[in-house]
Amino acid sequence: MKKFNFKILNRDGAARVGEIATPKGNISTPAFMPVGTAATVKAMLPSSVRSTGAQILLSNTYHLMLRPSAERINALGGLHKFMNWDGPILTDSGGFQVMSLSELRKITENGVDFKSHIDGSKHFLSPERSMEIQKLLGSDIVMSFDECTPFPETKLRSEASMQMSMRWAKRSVEAFGERPGYALFGIQQGSIFKDLREESAKKLGQLSFDGYAIGGLAVGEGQDQMFKVLDYAPGQLPNDKPRYLMGVGKPDDIVGAVERGVDMFDCVLPSRSGRTGQGITRYGAVNLRNARHKNDPRPLDSECSCPACSNYSRAYLHHVIKTGEIIGSMLLTWHNLHYYQTLMNDLRQAISNQHLSKFVKDFREMQSIGDIEKI
Amino acid sequence: MKKFNFKILNRDGAARVGEIATPKGNISTPAFMPVGTAATVKAMLPSSVRSTGAQILLSNTYHLMLRPSAERINALGGLHKFMNWDGPILTDSGGFQVMSLSELRKITENGVDFKSHIDGSKHFLSPERSMEIQKLLGSDIVMSFDECTPFPETKLRSEASMQMSMRWAKRSVEAFGERPGYALFGIQQGSIFKDLREESAKKLGQLSFDGYAIGGLAVGEGQDQMFKVLDYAPGQLPNDKPRYLMGVGKPDDIVGAVERGVDMFDCVLPSRSGRTGQGITRYGAVNLRNARHKNDPRPLDSECSCPACSNYSRAYLHHVIKTGEIIGSMLLTWHNLHYYQTLMNDLRQAISNQHLSKFVKDFREMQSIGDIEKI
Predict the structure, then answer these.
(1) Among B67, B294, B326, whose Cβ lies nearest the Cβ of A319?
(2) CB-based contacts of B348-355 (< 8 A; 24+ apart in sequence)
(3) ipTM at complex level
(4) Min distance B198 CA to chain A CA atoms (Å)
(5) A171-183 residue pLDDT tens
(6) Which domains can be identified in chain A, with CATH numbers?
(7) pTM for this predicted structure
(8) How far B320 CA lies from chain A's nearest CA (Å)?
(9) Cβ contact (<8 Å) for B82 and A44?
(10) Hey, are the CB atoms on B44 and A77 less than 8 Å from each other?
């Protein structure tokens, strides 16, 4: 079986263009992974997600372990078959959502006892159980089990949390074992403290993961603070492995993180905003609910080739969003995911051509327009 | 411009196979028209609706006149462009929905004053206004404005209602005028009274419509009563024009009506049931919400080639319906519309091969199974 592998093809400053090879297909980096929380990228068929340029999906351990359960998905042939996506899938460890969504959780060194936010049923997650679930799902890129340190947090508590995550990372490696063709990523913690991040990176480096995530960011610290951490965090991690910034983000978050050496991203923003009537464009976000669109025959973005922009007016998008029609969610989600993949492709080209700083300057100017309307 | 035209190609008993030619494309009959109430077939892209075999859509005058308004759609280039459907569109007259949905309506010989069920705004519909709206929309097959006689109703009131509809039909013809390439259909009323239906058909026949609908059925009278009317009503209408049974129906309603000489149908059932987790199959309706599907690796119907049946298990459909995921509505609507178009195609073949009675016998046996599960 083809092995999991990462190759850097080009660099521009700290930014890199690379390729992750997996048995289920290659992933060009910097890459954006659409989120398929409950075994579906909401309002999209997998073939449509693929057509936007997406090469890998993210799915959520926490949601799937509760419904329909990892054991059931395994018995049905695994997550790829279940959700009809034959490309690579990355699953998170469940650690983040168990903190943010579940009820009555109790964290000990061993793991986390919690109650389902859906039906109150009791569950347990630990490094060993998280590895087991992700294996049952058939995930191609498995995330080690960690605690996402809350923000803000004292340095003392941030350190204790990071140290537990590092012990959990070691247990994750041991539980994961040898699985050719599948990858295990470690997750750096340490909040906004450079020396804690350094120590976390060092401990992870000793465990020889296939890739490294930067965890504990995009949790309320703001873009300035996040970029300050990203000025050093990617460089603390092994240079020859993919670096993944979890849960990020808005287009300008992604651009700033790519400039600083990040290779992978995931975020619910493009799909979630699509369902609430937000179109994300080169010119910034456009609220299609706004009445000023109701007579507008122009597409959301005349240069976009997605089905929403190719076939419909802003007036139609406004109409179907206002009337709560499902096609509104379908079209805007499609557009937003298409825009994100176009952005990633543009970033890869800019890095390959050593034009990243010019690209970023142009990108920021365009985004500051706020809406194509105003041109 | 190509004219609107209807040709009967084959017959088997009272049933006919035909072809309606319109400037926007041909329609093989017996035909089922998916319903695109608010300028969208709910949870479907137009290209997906087309891929099921649909050749014509129905859209609703009442809903569109309220939101986004016929004038706005006209200013945006008409309904076809607005909703991205380049095939023929039939619009109803608004008469049925104004009775069933609107508030504070007042019916006079002139027309109907009513308040919108959405925002309480005041509106007026009459034969002249209905023709104007349907013209503004760019509808290919325009329905004359009528009153759908409630059921049950006394013969005296049924006659009065029918007579008013016949006067409205005449006003509809006059208001419609000469519009080459566009068709106007008259609507037969008369409740369940054969002589009233006969008189209605005679009056409509004098107005030389391009087609004729059988109105006032599927309003609570039940299938037995409906079939009794259909034993004579289609034969009262001109033989060389399409006959359209409005708002029908379940697969066995359609089969029984085709046997009795009906050529066109529309119904929200396949799309609405799709959104509530009902799969409509050769074997009857399957409720995918039922827990017995949760471990079932089989497709909804192994002989169906729609995306839901080709790519997903019953377990997946159960999961996405239980979790309220939009893809559940998308997949089941697609399946149901695909099944309806397959049924219409099978009916056309059976009539062409003079095998309709055998087809109907087999169809009834299959449907009585109730669920593929039980085979």
Answers:
(1) B67
(2) B348/B17, B348/B28, B348/B29, B348/B30, B350/B12, B351/B10, B351/B11, B351/B12, B351/B15, B351/B16, B351/B17, B351/B30, B351/B258, B352/B9, B352/B10, B352/B12, B352/B17, B354/B12, B355/B12
(3) 0.97
(4) 41
(5) 999 999 999 999 9
(6) 5-267 (3.20.20.105), 274-368 (no CATH)
(7) 0.97
(8) 8
(9) no
(10) no
